[in-house]
Amino acid sequence: MPAGTGGGRVTECKLVLLGDTNVGKSSLVLRFVKNQFVHDQCTTVGAAFLQQAVPLDDSEDKIQFGIWDTAGSERYKALAPMYYRGAEAAIVVYDITSFESFEGAKKWVAELKQQGQPNVVVALAANKCDHADYRVVLEREGQAYAHEHDMAYFETSAKTNHNVRQMFVELAQRVPRKDQSALSSATTLENAQPKGGCC
Predict the structure, then answer these.
(1) Under a CB-based contact definition with an 8 Å cutoff, are residues 41 and 26 in contact?
(2) Domain boundaries, the chain
(3) pLDDT, tens digit, 9 for 90 and up, residues 148-172
(4) What distance in Å separates the CA atoms of residue 74 and residue 179, rounded to the nearest whole number?
(5) 98, 134, 195, 199: most buried by Cβ count inside 10 Å?
């Protein structure tokens, strides 16, 4: 656990984003890391890797997220276990205007629970809440599912920046503190896999 510039400790944490294609995973990460929103965000190819530190409450300590933004398309789903293996935290994303993506999120959660770390901290992101007029997945449905599976729940919008940082901060608070880096395997994957880009 390296020391932070202000004297606090920095805990490295591998975080993975999962969800079907076009639910806004990349947009959420881009908003969190760079505070940017791109209307026509290109579909992620393989996976993209970014890093961002989150200060912890009442402390000089920080969580340094190593964020894997995975592709949601069917052709890349077989690669997902490479990215969530060893992850201490995960965000499963669906689009509130797509019931199919909500059902897809349930499958991602089941796969993560079966093959991921036993103590992985998970948040369920009901994304694109700025499109409330086109909502087909009710907030109470998402909340109930998250509660049933012991996940944090957030209605998010990368476009308006609603709840984006709050979600990552909540995950940082929930991640168990540890002394060993969780990013060693992530660094290896980063060097081996292509970055996200347009298809």
Answers:
(1) yes
(2) 10-192
(3) 999 999 999 999 999 999 999 999 9
(4) 36
(5) 98
CATH number for the 10-192 domain, one of 3.40.50.920, 2.130.10.10, 3.30.230.70, 3.40.50.300?
A: 3.40.50.300
First to last CA, the chain: 38
Q: How far is CA 120 from the centre of its chain?
A: 12
Tens of pLDDT, residue by residue over 10-69, are: 999 999 999 999 999 999 999 999 999 987 666 654 568 999 999 988 678 999 999 999
Adjacency order of strands within the sheet including 89-95: 47-55, 62-70, 10-18, 89-95, 121-127, 152-155
